[in-house]
Batch of 2 targets.
Target 1
Amino acid sequence: MSTPQLFVHSRFTIAPPTLLFIVLASAAAAAPRNDPPSASYDAFTEPFQTIDVAAAEPGRVAKVFVEPGAQVAADALLMALDSQVLRATRAVAVKQSEATSEIDSLRIEHQRLAHRYQRLLELRSQGAGSPDEVLQAETEVKIAQLRVQTALERQRIAELEIAEIDARIAMKEIRSPIAGIVTEVVQEVGEFVAGAEPTTVRVVDLSALRAVFYLPTQVAMQLQVGQTLALQFPESAADVAATIRHIDPVTNAESGRVGVEVIIDNPNNQYRSGLRCRLHP
């Protein structure tokens, strides 16, 4: 390829037309793009929250209480994993915590030995009996008292085991962390929820919608958090107010745009998620 030649005339150097075109095109590409003042910006609405409700531990699905489209309150029971073994263990712990026959018998034995010890002390004070007998009786009373205390501690441990089992049973119950609408039931009765894929139900909060507009920096700089904006749904030509929730503090270097998140109140699910909304700054 031949090297472009420069034409020299008097004191000035003139570049050939091809080289001038390349330079001008590069300068135009490097110049920032300014949208016209009347530009509009589109975004799509999304649920205010989308929660993939996960099981706290693996297990087989025993019962499903909801189906897609169901409205649920916060803490509503969505699904239950099998807990038969835990419930059987709990029944044993309850029996152990309620059993009093062992404690009663040990207390009776302690009272008998304590009475015998007191009799030996009286006899010893009268010169009868031996010091070894008194010492032996005192030791037996203390051991009997410790046996009663041990039985009471076992009863207390059984009560604590019940509380632990109840907590583990509660972990088998999958509840919604938010009020919303069930959009998908991922696991069905009989399926196994694995630790690597713990999602069981998807719940969305549509009481409000969110949308993220990507605006030129000069437009975003004129906005502030908490400001109310007027939006429009092009499909229905409905106008709606939105509140700015967040403005990205950093401009995207490639696009020169700034993300601006807005929230749209959606009482009674008046507006659908996934619709296009338009902003005219």
Target 2
Amino acid sequence: MNVQFDNVRKKFGSQTALNSLSFTMNGPKIVGLLGRNGAGKTTALNMMAGCIFPDNGSIVVNGSSPFAQPNNVCLINESGNFKKDFAIKETLKSASLFYPNWDQKRAEELLELFHLKKSKKVKSLSKGMESGLGITVGLASYSPVTIFDEPYIGLDAAARSRFYDLLIEEYERQPRLFILSTHLIDEAAKLFEDVFIIHKGALLLHQDVETLRSMSFSITGTKKDVTEYLNGKAPIHRNEFAGRITAYVYGSEWNRHEAELYRLDTDSIPIQELMVHLTDSRTGGKK
């Protein structure tokens, strides 16, 4: 259960989508693939599923090319996953023929959970119902690599929470490599074991979540104390209000215990805020 990108490049006309992108994802794990709009996430995910060819570089999924064995991967996009004129039962039948590990019983259990009738046509489904169908197919596929790219458009907070619980339940039932790409990062962050951040088509960061949290924190104190602790080094974000400064720091050179010795208050940085500031164009997306 692994995905390897080696120096992958892709352009659409004059626009560079992926710029020498290289990384390795090893499973079984639940990983987050994060980045701003236009960073290249969806292009990379579609390449994993064998839907888009790279211009250069190589992609290997479970030891083979995704273009030779696309049924190693189940990709559920934000929308447009299923033929609109198909009924749900026909959609499930099609999925069962494509995915060798398909579990029809589990699919029907999930349909019931999302209140979906097999007789309904895809084109008649609301956004939330179509998302429920996508989640059903993704989970019931039992593909070694299962990808959800913004899978819950139209779902309310309670339904999204149900999806997170289902993801953990399915991971425990049959471990696989789940890749989740979302803009609701703080909601999903509790699921991630590893985080990958793509910026301008290249890999900006890959860390396991525990290490990431230990290497990033905020410091708050008087201007004098914060300036003394920073000692000329640039934080990834800095804000001054009412005579006090809050700065966000990331990297192995920063030590939270040492910061507290400078009479500074420290706190964790939510992964969503960390991603935002690391990819801020004003800092060039540099750590």
